[in-house]
Amino acid sequence: MDEMTVSTNLTRRSLALSLGAVAFAGPSLAHALTQADQALVARAVAYLEALTQAKGRFVQTDARGQRAEGALYLKRPGKARFEYDAPSGLIVVSDGGTVAVADSRLKTFDRYPLSSTPLSLFLARNIRLDRGVQVTAVSRAAEGFTLTARDVRKQTAGQITLSFRDNPLALAGWTVTDAQRRSTQVQVVSLAPVASLQPGLFTLRDPRQAAGRARM
User: pLDDT for 69-91, tens place per residue?
Assistant: First the structure.
């Protein structure tokens, strides 16, 4: 197996971690949070719900330090597209109901329910960090703050930490940590609102089916 294939496989595993490690559902906000913490949660919710269409870049780093970069498109509610730069060959698209992952190099195509992925946290029409998830910690930093959430039903082990920059408020990225404490970090770069995005960005068909029709 060549080095490029190993790197791609590692990227796919880290992508699966970032998509599937945490399902967001559960009862009320953690009681340990202060009023100041809850005010930051409310700010984060208001910001995310106002971010209806945006595009930018992302940098993903897995537990082994493998990095991958690409372009990011968001169209709330429900839609997102991650285009990984070469040589990755990965495209990840949420169409509002499912998340599709296509790998042109490995010729694979997988689907996941959007509701079982971290993407559902900030793609939902109504973001309810006070009901849909349990926020277990709020941390402040010089340039912003982070919110850590987990699945209180324990249908999936792990947690997610959303990071925000301040002045102006902006999504800086997220880190997903699994039950073995392995983390995948996604840093969001230059995310900016846009007036419109092409609908085709949020449709992803199985490339193997297209190849099969072409051979007929």
Answer: 999 999 988 899 999 998 888 99
Q: Which two tokens stand for residue 119?
A: 């993407």
Ranges assigned E (strand) in the chain: 53-61, 67-75, 79-84, 90-95, 98-103, 108-113, 134-141, 144-150, 159-165, 170-177, 183-193
Q: Could you tell me the pLDDT band of residue 105, with boundaries at 50, 70 and 90?
A: confident
pLDDT digits (tens, 9 = 90+) for 114-156: 877 767 777 877 776 655 567 888 999 889 999 988 766 554 5
pLDDT in tens, 27-54: 334 447 889 998 998 898 888 888 889 9
Residues 6+ apart with CB under 8 A from 71: 55, 56, 57, 58, 81, 82, 83, 85
Note if the pTM is more than 0.85. no
Sequence-ordered list of residues with C-beta below 8 angstroms from that of 34, at least 6 positions apart, any chain: none
- CB count, 10 Å around CB of 119? 23
Q: Which domains does the chain have, with CATH numbers?
A: 3-203 (2.50.20.10)
CA 47 to mean position of chain CA atoms:
16
Sign of CA dihedral 59, 10, 109, 117: negative
Task: Tell me the CA end-to-end span of the chain in Å, nearest whole number.
Answer: 31
- How do strand 90-95 and strand 98-103 relate by DSSP bridges? antiparallel
The pair phi, psi for residue 21, each rounded to 5°, is: -75, -30
Residue 117 token pair: 């992925």
